[in-house]
Amino acid sequence: MQADGAEKKPYVKSVRSRIEDIVPGMAVAEDIKNTAGGIIVAADTFLTSSHIQKLKECGIDRLYIQTCDMNKEFDPLRNKRAVVVDDSLFFRHMFSKMLYRMGMFVCGESPTAEEGLEAVSVYSPELVVMDIHLPKMDGRLAIKQIHRKMPQTKILAVSTDTEKATIIETFRAGANDYMVKPIKWDILKPRIINLFPAKESSVNH
Q1: Where does residue 170 rank: exposed (0-12), middle (13-18), buried (19+ CB within 10 A)?
Q2: 7-11, 14-18, 103-107, 110-114: which has the minimum mean pLDDT?
Q3: Which of 31, 33, 36, 41 could form a disulfide with 5 if both were Cys (CB 3.0 to 4.6 A apart)?
Q4: Which of 49, 85, 82, 55 is nearest to 157 (CA)?
Q5: Contact call for residues 153 and 196 (beta carbons, < 8 A)
Q6: In this structure, are residues 82 and 127 in contact, taking their beta carbons and an 8 Å threshold?
Q7: DSSP for 68-121, written as a single string
Q8: Which residues contact 78 (CB under 8 A, 6 or more apart)?
């Protein structure tokens, strides 16, 4: 069945899709509700494997997925997977939206380095966005582990920390770039694109 009680938001570009065609990282354009009116998955949620499995178990077979017009400049990023690790829910959501609009699939959002490492292990993303100062495990340690196990994965470090020593340590750990918060979204696009040269993208695809 289609998502019960769900209406496509008129101001969000979307396409009605079969559940079989849904993959992790896609963003839903509607509140998906059960027959009792309870929300199963909220609008703007970036779907994970567990979300998709839950929708199948609830008998949802079609839903509206957000789409956007892709500029040719984003071709190197098209269909690449990303994991965003930050203890700020607002930042994770905003960053994920920006990546999705650039054609990437955000397969995981994690509030801690430990959960981020688990998501990276599951999804093998081409890009990891990693906050530096996180609860428990430090982001730099997580970057070091990712770089050692998956050297092909690009890592963008983000932090409010502007100390030169911190930035140097982060690059030594294996980060490919470092951006200071608050992120200037207008310069995010070229910084992300620069991580994936056109030649490299053509080889991967």
Answers
A1: buried
A2: 7-11
A3: 33
A4: 85
A5: no
A6: yes
A7: -PPPGGGGGGTT-EEEEE-S-HHHHHHHHHHHHHTT-EEEEEESSHHHHHHHHH
A8: 70, 103, 104
Tokens 């509700």 identify what position? 33
Give Dmax (Cα) for the chain.
55
Prediction pTM value: 0.73
Name the amino acid, one letter, at 34: N
Please give the Cα distance from 6 to 14 (Å, whole number): 13
Tokens 């829910």 found at: 89
Which of 14, 73, 71, 84 lies closest to 44, judged by CA? Answer: 14
Q: Name the residue type at position 180.
A: V
Phi and psi angles of residue 87, each rounded to the nearest 5 degrees, phi first: -80, -5
Residue 44 is which amino acid?
A: D
Cα(115)–Cα(81) distance, integer angstroms: 17
Enter the tokens of residue 96. Answer: 């994920």
Residue 67 CA to residue 106 CA, distance in Å, equals 14
The answer for residues whose C-beta is within 8 angstroms of residue 84's C-beta and 6 or more apart is 92, 95, 96, 99, 106, 108, 109, 110, 128, 129
* Amino acid sitting at position 20: E
Which residue type is seen at 91?
Answer: F
How many angstroms separate the CA atoms of 11 and 179, rounded?
31
